[in-house]
Amino acid sequence: MTGLYPVFERSTWTSNAAITSSTHIPKAKLLLNFTTEFNILNRTNTQATDGIPLGYFTENGVYREINEFDEKNIDYKHLLIPIEEVRNQNQPGVYTNFHLNLSKEISKRLILTFHVYNVFNYRPQYKRSDNTMVIPNDKPSYGAQLRLKL
Question: Does the pTM exceed 0.85?
């Protein structure tokens, strides 16, 4: 049996901020950038009726419309998606992430850069209302760049 649901009408708010600090050490020909990201808000509002099916298809492919959903009806009560599962995308707090970028000028024409995303391996986690564990920060990732000015 397959349920047919209305299109989810969601409104989502996301707010992020970042602070970057740059330090240039001329004698060493070194540039150090440190960035702190703040994931301030990640909130989704849904309609209360989003988890209530409009109808369902039987095993034989016959469509049955549900005019008024009855939670006690044994034919389709299992198709109800609990509100906890529909509204499970809200972030409970502010989360941060830290990045480092180090550039070394080898010569006037050659610069070597090394960067680390999530430099401290900071991986906070929280549990959604549907018991899904969310880890907003990825594991550290590394990169390098070699720039040659022609």
Answer: no
